[in-house]
Q: What sequence folds into this?
């Protein structure tokens, strides 16, 4: 939970919070639609379902990587030029 809060705070400090939320929502909506279409087809065999799940894992990994990248960028922007307290 602290890592999730740190990533969210860093993403908001970067100033790209609106764009990352829109990107994440688009990816999740696309994955939900793909899974729904796959399950409603008459021949929803396991190979097709496995492919949708594999694509979903890769897409969600990409979303997570973008969130972390933007969070690191936000933290670096925020702390650049500030002396570390010892």
A:
């Amino acid at each position: 939970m602290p890592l999730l809060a740190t990533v969210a705070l860093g993403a908001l400090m970067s100033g790209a919070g609106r764009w990352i939320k829109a990107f994440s929502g688009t990816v999740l909506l696309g994955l939900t639609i793909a899974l729904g279409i796959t399950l409603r087809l008459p021949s929803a065999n396991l190979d097709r379902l496995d492919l949708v799940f594999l694509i979903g894992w890769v897409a969600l990994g990409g979303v997570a990587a973008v969130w972390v990248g933007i969070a690191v960028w936000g933290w670096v922007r925020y702390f650049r030029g500030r002396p570390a307290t010892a």
The radius of gyration is 18 Å. The mean pLDDT is 77. Helices lie at 2-14, 17-40, 46-79.
